[in-house]
């Protein structure tokens, strides 16, 4: 087990290092001097030279990469050219909000996707199956920005049921200030027993979580349906049917559990995918996560921030894959940690 | 039975949703709070000496300057200085400070404190600190008198009103070596009507300012007691927030959304000319545009009124280089260009191009993501096509566009460089010295234009601005006509500020010298 984990972690870190080098080189090959954004549009040539020195851009590329790796290990991920703040501090502020949103979206996707997939398999080729398949195609193929605008229009503009943007009602900052520990408002509010902020956070989370969760929800539904249909054809299911178990037990007890194994792997992967895919949704719902930070970084050629976000996402992908491997081994006795 | 259970569950879920929305949802903005919506992070820089970005919209309500530019009178007026004068040569300026002013740290404003702030800004020399470059020394003969001795004549009344770099702040707010770090944690040490309540970086309401009780202007009468700065990147979300009455002011929407508020009973719209103009710099050094006739032909080919119409009120016509509202602007200039395809064809023909002759290919670069520049590029392409000119459009990030423009390899450079310019203080000199002064290595002179005669006129105009404004204005007229004749630039339009503002707000005025700044203290809430 330890050897397996060590080997997987080492391989994962190698992948992360490769991603960083590649991003670094691409960012440097693109014409343009990031220092021009550091000093602003009307800066003098002397200011520009000083900024290039401050940012280490006047050193050879291999030296820059070496210094960057050294910095990553010691907790210095560089200074953001756009915000003029340490990248690690920016990520520590922004990433938790994205993780909260994607976490909520995945919970929603699992809560709806598994029963829906089960229902589709149970009533295969009947009305529930057709409806579920249509809904999952809708979830997977719907452009997130369009879906977000429609939800805003319906639930905020027309029905006045849910807020249009933000992570909680800003007026609560003065009446019920939130003690920030994790930068996840829902968790912070729960931890500190700040119920007005907690309730407000839930209402603000619903619409963006639906939009972000629509893709993983669609994928999970289809995966559950397909896996269950596969499992239903296996010997052990035929056996329990022959023994006269009711259909509800056959599905819930004997078909669902083995069918969930591929769902675990797809869930971990769509988590990492959704994290990178929330950028547009965050912009529309004004969600203070990585999205707007990454968008600003790209527009201003903010190399340290771009590499920082890339590194963070790469680490999440590697961690998700590692988790999948371990969980599959735990849940499926046929897979060993070798 | 199943249907009944499903219906009950759905109704229950809707009920819970409604209850949550009612209990924890977005409450209306309190009447005494002004809510300002901007599309990107507000406080990028906190240090008043070096901040040089969107932070101006927050800083201008926390900090004040010695003078303030009035776009109506086109003069600098008292702010922290109640009066100011210069000697005849414009090399010595005396400012008398207002009494009863205190910094948000509680310390009083004195000439020594103001001097310390300006000297720190000069020493750091970041952002717009260059506005103090003419200053040789500062004397404080009394507690309320500042005397600036200059190296050469300069309009220090305007420099002291600059949008960046001119703030007066308390340098003793923290120990000298830790002051920069103290600012960057979200503190201010200004004298303005509002001070920091909280700064939540990355959140929807990024910054909240509260009234400073000891503000020298006092709080009697009707004033907003707090300002919230909302960061809303999506224009559709910003429009929905405004429609729902959640926010007071939206800095910018697209023209279509902005126009949709014109019939709104509670939300109004304002439109005001800015000092930001879009310029097409034409390559005078290499390529086909090195021929002045071709540059003039392209200038005649532009459908100026068509551009304005396509931008749906987002822009107005720019005559010359200096925008309306700034001294040195003229509504008509000798040699100004109006659309004239016949003249364009004749000029192209004389240069060996045009319909039926050799095909001309030009490369235009502009900043990616700017929808106005996208539209302008597309329109220019269609306007030039009938003249047998193929316009290739390159859309890229600003650092890339700028790097290409500055490239020492002439083949890498563009033919047409689209970009915006605006001044840091109320002086037309900014356009000329930065964009048209001869440069060995191009920096912002990306038309690569070089005219010793114009260079000499610039130097003269800078000095005359301090000593004889009327002569300076006349000289700027000649300089603009010279540029029109040589055609290194096509001034395409001047941008309009299109704001969305709650009708309950009284006294709003857009001052182009302070882009996107709302002086909230001067407004009257309902």
Outline the structure in words.
The complex is a heterodimer of chains A (338) and B (526). Chain A is mainly α and 338 residues long. Chain A has a domain of 193 residues: MetI-like fold (Orthogonal Bundle). Chain A is built from 15 helices and no strands. In chain A, α5 runs antiparallel to α6. Chain A is globular. The mean pLDDT of chain A is 87. Chain B is built from 15 helices and 17 strands. By secondary structure, chain B is an alpha+beta fold. Chain B has two domains: 262 residues, Periplasmic binding protein-like II (D-Maltodextrin-Binding Protein, domain 2, 3-Layer(aba) Sandwich), CATH 3.40.190; 224 residues, Roll (Dipeptide-binding Protein, domain 3). The longest helix of chain B has 23 residues. Helices cover 30% and strands 22% of the residues of chain B. In chain B, the strands form three sheets. In chain B, strands 1, 8, 9, 10, 11, 12, 13, 14, 15, 16 and 17 form an eleven-stranded mixed β-sheet that branches. Chains A and B meet through α2, α5, α7, α10 and α14 of A and α1, β10, α6 and α12 of B.
Q: Please provide the count of β strands of chain B.
A: 17
Q: Biggest interface and its residues per chain?
A: A-B, 63 and 63 residues
> Strand-residue fraction of chain B?
15-25%
Strand count, sense and barrel status of the largest sheet of chain A are: none
Q: Quick check: average pLDDT of chain A? A: 87
Radius of gyration of chain B, CA atoms, in whole angstroms? 26 Å
**How does the helix and strand content of chain A classify structurally?**
mainly alpha
Helix content of chain A: over 70%
- Rg from Cα of chain A: 24 Å
The CATH architecture name of the largest domain in chain B reads 3-Layer(aba) Sandwich
CATH superfamily of the largest domain in chain B: Periplasmic binding protein-like II
CATH superfamily name of the domain at 98-290 in chain A? Answer: MetI-like
Characteristics of this structure?
heterodimer, A: 338 residues, mainly alpha, MetI-like fold, 15 helices, 76% helix, 0% strand, globular, B: 526 residues, alpha+beta, D-Maltodextrin-Binding Protein, domain 2, Dipeptide-binding Protein, domain 3, 2 domains, eleven-stranded mixed beta sheet, four-stranded antiparallel beta sheet, 17 strands, 30% helix, disordered N terminus
